[in-house]
Design a protein that fits this description.
about 50% strand; alpha+beta
Amino acid sequence: MADGSVYKTITLVGTSPDSWEEAVQNAVNLASQTLRDLRIAEVKELDVRIENGKIAEYRAKVKLSFKLEKGQPL
């Protein structure tokens, strides 16, 4: 951070009926629609939702960081 920038992190949970990779991609895709300058996506936790003994949904807890702009609310 040599430029004196400030970054904020948020945690999202992405879901997918098909894979953890798609769950992460879904979280990043949605975040990129409202947040600018996304920098890092760190997968913190993976789990699945089970129905009737079978995997019904893949879930990925994703920590995202983005650069704050002047005047942007914290």
